[in-house]
Amino acid sequence: MIAAIAYFTMGADLGQTGIRPEFMRSNPKVSGELREIFYVRYIDWVLTTPLLLMDLLLSAGLPWPTIIYTILIDEIMVITGLIGALVTSNYKWAYFTFGLVAFLWVAWTVTWTARKHANALGNDISRTYLICGVWTIFLWFLYPIAWGLSEGGNVIAPDSEGVFYGILDLMAKPVFGALLLWGHRNIDPARLGLHIRDYDDDPAITHTSHAGRHGEKGSNGTTTGTDVPTTTV
């Protein structure tokens, strides 16, 4: 839903601002004084990439403190990418470097730390995590290339940038989600340390429900524990 709103906004040519590119190109598709920077794309990423990471790392059984600090580093990665895109001088590459270092930290957690946890939980969990983890990191490695060709180097036009990012987002979000759901279709969440139950599985609710049904028997003419028989004199 978040990504759909973001792409609707970009398709309407909203959620963007013009900045003077660092590199002025002779190519008519990218020539001009200003280049469109779609900041709404980064709003999408700052909301959706933590959810993707959380899903992936939970499927490896990682402890919550590790998941939380990995998500914080992911936020740094996205925010520095946005700042770099909006900077008009060569300082943009410093922010690009900050974001790249943050990405490499996330990639290390996904490919090494979390993979060791997944391997300890069984072959089926390890296999599913390996497929989803490799898929995610491979695609995420392509995002800095897209950034360097578009917001950074002004090599490709904003329309081509939109197609590039759009294909990556499609593969990294809905396709990733389908792979994760398919891989975990026969895996008990309890093996990952997740205790998920429906509301009617709560013993307190079940007890209350049974008690309510027991008390209703008096309305059908039967005697309940609270009914006191009367004698006519």
Q: Can you walk through the features of this model?
A:
It is a single chain. With 233 residues, this protein is mainly α. The protein is built from seven helices and two strands; from the N terminus they run αββαααααα. A two-stranded antiparallel sheet has the order 1-2. The N and C termini lie far apart (73 Å). The model is unreliable at 221-226 (pLDDT under 50).
Write the layout of secondary structure elements.
Layout: H1 2-11, E1 17-19, E2 35-37, H2 39-58, H3 64-86, H4 92-119, H5 123-152, H6 158-183, H7 203-215
Antiparallel strand pairs: 1-2
Strand order of the largest sheet: 1-2
Instruction: Classify the secondary structure makeup into a structural class.
Output: mainly alpha
Q: Main beta sheet: strand number and arrangement?
A: 2 strands, antiparallel
Order of helices and strands: HEEHHHHHH
The overall pLDDT, averaged over residues, is: 87
How many DSSP-defined strands? 2
Give the C-alpha Rg. Answer: 27 Å
Percent strand: under 5%
So how many helices?
A: 7
Distance between the termini: 73 Å
Quick structural summary:
With 233 residues, the chain is mostly helical.
Task: Write a concise keyword list for the protein shown above.
7 helices, mainly alpha, two-stranded antiparallel sheet, 233 residues
